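[step 3/7] inverse_fold.run input=structure_tokens len=420
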């Protein structure tokens, strides 16, 4: 309950920010082995501002991992013959209740039943203020996803991105499904390269509001901002260490852009790369011991890895003559990046152990990949119908989503961490 309260508190303070453009989500493709799961309408969910069962169904369908079956309404969740739903093709059954409390909060309870064993697999009881009943539904979907796949769900996580309409730039935060959009920063100058802190309470980004690129860290709860780098020349590409204590960045203060490390509270800037080329787009490895970055030291942009303390670098990408924007999965096993092949900039993912790569996009102008915290999906910017849009693809390439807004461009996405 303590963790859930922390999540509610963080989201609640964010909710005080101004909501603006709503994302629209389009889904295509399905997983290779979908799990059939029946979801019943929650008892008395009409009392809640959120139709809990609808959010759960949408989350599970959006993942591509489940075939959702409408179980109708089950009025007594303590006396359910789950086995009877096996005949309807379901391997599992989701049931629940919603009850409004005298203090105005909502008691949201759910059970996950095995139709094969006719037994309870999991349950979750939550007390949620009205504005967070939707978050409660996401947490239930996360629990269903984890119990049935063995992988932690990402429906209660958030994403950050930049929208542009004319000369108006907005750094926005939304739920992973594009709902509940909140404004973090608005500017008449470009905002680029947002990067979540590991605890999900801060975002580092580059703002041109001082008529030059400057790196800031903004607390999403208090909105307090700290300047991390305002050196001579370009200050760009901030990226957090896994423990949140350091930020890798790219600075050009001595000439060619090189990789540096700074304290996440500001100060302590020290150089860790030293090449005659351009070294940029640094990303910490999952264990924080290495830095992946883009360098043209071999004559064209390729992805390299070096110690987080600096030193010699090893080249990681060899296929294609233009590979940029490295991003590492949370388990450290996969590398996502953008590769130019036949004139197209497309999203690829590489198994770092085998070096085997897979193209995940059929578009021609992909940018800024970002792994979901469970490593099963990648969020990136692309171009659709001549407009900038966001897309999500599963790491096997089977499930795809596209997120658009009604007007303007949406770009520079980054997927937030699991909330603690």
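[step 3/7] decode complete -> sequence:
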């Amino acid at each position: 309950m303590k963790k859930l309260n922390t999540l509610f508190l963080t989201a609640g303070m964010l909710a005080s920010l101004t909501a603006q453009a709503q994302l629209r989500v389009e889904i295509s493709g399905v997983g290779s082995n979908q799990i059939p799961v029946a979801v019943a309408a929650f008892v008395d969910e009409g009392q809640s501002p959120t139709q809990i069962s609808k959010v759960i169904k949408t989350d599970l369908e959006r993942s591509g991992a489940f075939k959702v079956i409408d179980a109708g309404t089950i009025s007594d969740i303590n006396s359910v013959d789950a086995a009877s739903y096996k005949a309807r093709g379901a391997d599992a059954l989701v049931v629940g209740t919603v009850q409004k409390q005298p203090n105005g909060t909502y008691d949201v309870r759910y059970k996950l039943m095995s139709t094969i064993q006719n037994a309870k697999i999991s349950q979750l009881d939550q007390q949620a203020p009205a504005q967070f009943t939707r978050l409660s539904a996401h947490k239930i979907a996360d629990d269903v996803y984890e119990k049935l796949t063995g992988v932690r769900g990402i429906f209660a996580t958030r994403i950050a991105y930049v929208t542009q309409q004319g000369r108006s730039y907005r750094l926005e935060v939304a739920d992973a499904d594009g709902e509940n959009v909140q404004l973090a920063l608005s500017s008449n100058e470009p905002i680029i390269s947002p990067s979540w802190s590991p605890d999900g309470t801060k975002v580092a980004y580059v703002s041109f509001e001082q008529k030059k690129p400057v790196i800031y860290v903004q607390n999403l709860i208090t909105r307090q901002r700290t300047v991390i780098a305002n050196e001579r020349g370009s200050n760009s590409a901030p990226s957090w260490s896994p423990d949140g204590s350091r930020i890798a960045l790219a600075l050009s203060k001595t000439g060619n852009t090189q990789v540096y490390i700074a304290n996440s509270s500001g100060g302590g800037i020290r150089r860790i790369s030293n090449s005659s080329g351009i070294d940029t787009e640094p990303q910490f490895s999952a264990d924080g011991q290495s830095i992946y970055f883009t360098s043209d030291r071999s004559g064209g942009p390729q992805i390299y890895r070096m110690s987080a303390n600096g030193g010699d670098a090893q080249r990681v990408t060899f296929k294609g003559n233009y590979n940029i924007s490295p991003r590492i999965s949370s388990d450290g096993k996969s590398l996502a990046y953008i590769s130019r092949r036949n004139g197209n900039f497309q999203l690829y993912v590489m198994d770092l152990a085998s070096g085997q790569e897979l193209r995940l996009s059929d578009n021609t102008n992909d940018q800024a990949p970002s792994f979901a915290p469970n490593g099963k999906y990648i969020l990136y910017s692309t171009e659709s119908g001549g407009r900038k849009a966001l897309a999500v693809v599963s790491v096997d390439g089977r499930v795809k989503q596209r997120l658009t807004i009604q007007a303007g461009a949406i770009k520079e996405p980054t997927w937030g961490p699991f909330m603690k």
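[step 4/7] annotate
The two ends are 11 Å apart (CA to CA).
The chain has two domains: 33-149, 159-416.
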